[in-house]
Amino acid sequence: MELEENMLFVFMANILLGAHSLRLPPTISSVFRSEYFLDGSCTLSIRCQGINDVISYSWYQNGSQIKDNTEIVANKNTGELVISKKCTNQNLGLFYCRAENQYGSTVSPFVKISEPVLNSFEMTHTSDVVVCVENEHCQLKCYGKPICEPHDACAVKWFQGSGTQNSVLRSEHTTIDLEGNLHFLNVSKVAGNKSYACAIWNKRIRKLVMGYSITLNVNDSTAAALPRAIYHSRSKALFGKSAILQCIFSGILVPEIKWKRSNGSYITTNDKYRIGPYGRQLHVMNVTYDDEGNYSCYVNNLTQTPFLNVTSPPTFPENNRSFLTKTINIFTEDAIHLECNTVSSPTEKAPVITRWMKNGISIRSFQDFAVLLLDNNSVLKINRAHFVNAGAFQCVAENSEGIAVANFLIELENVKGNGSKLMIILSSVVVSLVILVCVIIRKRISRRNKGWKTKTEVDPNIYTLPREEIDERQMRSGDNIHIYYTAEETDSCYVYMN
Predict the structure, then answer these.
(1) Which residue from 11, 24, 37, 78 could staple onto 432, CB 3.0 to 4.6 Å apart?
(2) For residue 162, what pLDDT is reported?
(3) What pLDDT, on a 0 to 100 scale, did the predictor assign at position 254?
């Protein structure tokens, strides 16, 4: 059974190899993130890899090919891009890799490469005074927050007094919202007559910048404070990433917050959801478009409705991804229609086709290919008779969240030569069938010989050619397929096809 399964594999492989000559441009196999940031030493290394006999690689920055210099090196043999720059610019731009072989070139997904950055606070005024009432809710705003990238490496911290010795920690009575503001849920007199300051920490570059000082004064309470709903978030997350929703309630002895989906079902911690301390934050893992919408958080008879917006770069319906490779075989002289169908998330505007490329180079003069753009540039029509060489065409689509790239690998077939290709396919099928027959015969003979133990009688009137002479005569045979096997050796089977 195992031998027959192996031969079935050989049989199918021969058919496929005979049916397709693989005269195609490379296929990019690397998986890239949509955005990269330089590390703490302001360096970055990315490798582009392709399959199908890649001859060389090249990298492009903002549409121009990168020439090696002291800051950026693109290795044409390995596809590695090494960046070493001073951390001065926020954005290095859009990059893509181009892999080339003798049949054309394909491109990788577009990636944004940026430098980590943490600017200074906008110091509109040097100090401020906030007055709150004991046991009431009290908020200190973090004004003038600086730009901090990458976003997931940045955190807002609050400190009491001058310097960074005394951190204000999240607790039952204090918390920090997603905008960086500090909340005293039931402020005490002890917290008053002190100064506070917010700061931004960027762990990527291990840098902290301080904001201006706020003095908090707390007056005596004249009445018992009632619980109040004071904050809920409007959050956004990329498809497949994680999201954070937040609700904050004030008051003394506020119970833990409960969460519900829009359909009314309660949310508990599991593989999909994680609820933070005191129930103030809801973490949604691996978000999909079904996760978009309003959520509800409850405390006693108080309710808030944070909203989650799920978005993504343009995607191709064929694979629901932002990168597509599609092989197209052309057997006729008809015009070629390449359709670049991309979609956005439900709340996004439709993607815009920003450019078409051939072999990784932007097409600037469409007259060279007798090109016609249809359906708002989403369809590229090319007159088949105006070019001979095969290659790859690329479509680039954008929306507010990113870029999608499609590679169309085109193999042009010679219409007059289709007969010869058909013969190759049929020959491959015949050879595969012959091999399969040999295996079956060989297996039956082997079973028979295990049961029989007899001597082979040789007729002296029959002359048997030596093995070497048999092979030589097989090589000189005509156009027919010859099968030779001997029962004595139990495993001899020769196939020759001219």
Answers:
(1) 11
(2) 84
(3) 72
Could you tell me the pTM of the whole model?
Answer: 0.72
pLDDT of residue 479: 44
Q: Is residue 16 part of a domain?
A: no
- CA separation, residue 437 to residues 9, 16, 81, 232, 491 (Å): 14, 19, 52, 73, 13
Cis amide prior to 116 (ω within 30 degrees): no
Among 114, 214, 112, 201, residue whose Cα is nearest residue 161: 214
Residues 241 and 307 in one domain: yes
Q: Domain residues for 36?
A: 31-115
Residue 51 tokens read as 């399959």
Name which of 89, 79, 109 is nearest 38 in CA terms.
89
Buried b (16+ CB within 10 A) or exposed e, 256-277: ebbbbeeeeeebeeeeebbbee
Token pair in block for residue 117: 């950055």
179/160 Cα distance (integer angstroms): 19
Per-residue pLDDT band for 448 (boundaries 50, 70, 90) equals low
Q: Are 180 and 208 part of one and the same domain?
A: yes
